[in-house]
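Most newcomers find our protein records easier to grasp once they have seen one. There is nothing in a record beyond a sequence line and a structure line. Getting from the letters to the tokens is the skill we practise here. An example says more than a description, so a record of this kind follows:
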Amino acid sequence: MKISSEAIKEVRNRTSLGILDCKDALTEANGDVEKAIEILKDRGLEVAESKTGRVTAGGIIEAYIHHTRRIGALVELNCETDFVANTAEFKELARNLAMQVTAMSPRFITSDEVPKDSKLDPQSACLLLQPFIKDPNKTIQQLIVEVIAKMGENIKVSRFSRFELAS
């Protein structure tokens, strides 16, 4: 089956993955763009799962300060190498995470950190479970998995702090 360049371009624009990956997924999906995107998401999850045990010694600390200068956050985002830490995609992810922490004030990174007897809603209290403020159709965990699939390295949020002036 011949795959049109328009279909490849659409999948590439929607996933930001490489041309060959998009073409392979479209071939597997018999030219169906939506099915190809689902195939690529599944592959991204597989890649992310295969990277989870790898050491994340590189990374950056990103700050976000709201325009009012009364609220902000610091996020430590780690990856395996300094090469990935210096890419635009990784820096954008760190910026988005700092913005997320500022806007949504999570208390924990994962649901594993929530005390057993807590009555907190894990979806609002845990950063990785929160809907992404720029695209509520995906969680922060899904956002990170997408970047792991693109970069080919393990990425994890190590810690964060949120600051707000008292009223």
